[in-house]
Amino acid sequence: MSPTVPMRDLTNPTYSIRVSDGDMIHKFFYRMPDNDELAAYQAGLFQRRGNKIVARAAEMRLKFGKRVLLGFEEGTLGANGKFIASEKDSANYCSTWKEILVSGRPDIVSSIGRHVFESVAVVGESGVEIGMDDALQAILSEEGEGSTDGPENP
After folding, report:
1. Could you tell me if 29 and 15 are in contact, meaning their C-beta atoms sit under 8 angstroms apart?
2. What DSSP string runs through 105-141?
3. What value, to the nearest 5°, has the Cα angle with vertex 57 and ends 107 and 99?
4. Residue spans per domain, the chain
5. Among 100, 84, 102, 104, which residue's Cα sits nearest to residue 92?
């Protein structure tokens, strides 16, 4: 691989993401979920209630976004008119920063949850993201199984 291509260091447990909330950009730090968290997230996306299937994506994104969130870059978030920080060694450290963020901007925490748990994509040889139908078609073509199209679209 070329040295100019960024590398995903799988031994470094901390990742970052920049989130825009309109006129500001915030940098957050998160960890990757473990297998149990991935499974629990997927299992929680839908729930059967009687004869209905209820979508719970918003709840799961917020719950698990909060769980993997480690902190944020100081200087863009505050509470009660003062900057707050997630780093314990900062003069602006606020021990309740995560709860303040969840109650004040659940959309940001949910966006982080969506990014962490739902952002992996299948990419074709050309580097272009392909949808699940395209991915399935590529796999079936390699196995000689033919088209996934129905009889009306040969």
Report:
1. yes
2. -HHHHHHHHHHHHH----B-TTS-B--HHHHHHHHHH
3. 40
4. 14-120, 123-154
5. 84
- The length of the chain, given as a count of residues: 154
The secondary structure of the chain in percent helix, strand, coil, rounded to multiples of 5, reads 35, 20, 45
**Which tokens is 119 given?**
């952002």
- Cβ(41)–Cβ(117) below 8 Å: yes
Q: Is the entire prediction scored with pTM above 0.90?
A: no
H helix or E strand, kind and range, residue 28? strand 25-31
Q: What is the C-alpha separation between 103 and 15, in angstroms, rounded?
A: 23
| Interacting residues of 142 by C-beta distance below 8 A, sequence separation 6+ | none
CB atoms within 10 A of CB 69: 23
Given the structure tokens 């390699």, which residue do they identify? 142
42-78 tens-digit pLDDT: 999 999 999 999 999 999 999 999 999 999 999 999 9
Q: What is the pLDDT of residues 107-144, one digit of tens each?
A: 999 999 999 999 887 777 776 666 655 555 666 666 55
Token digits of residue 87: 């780093």
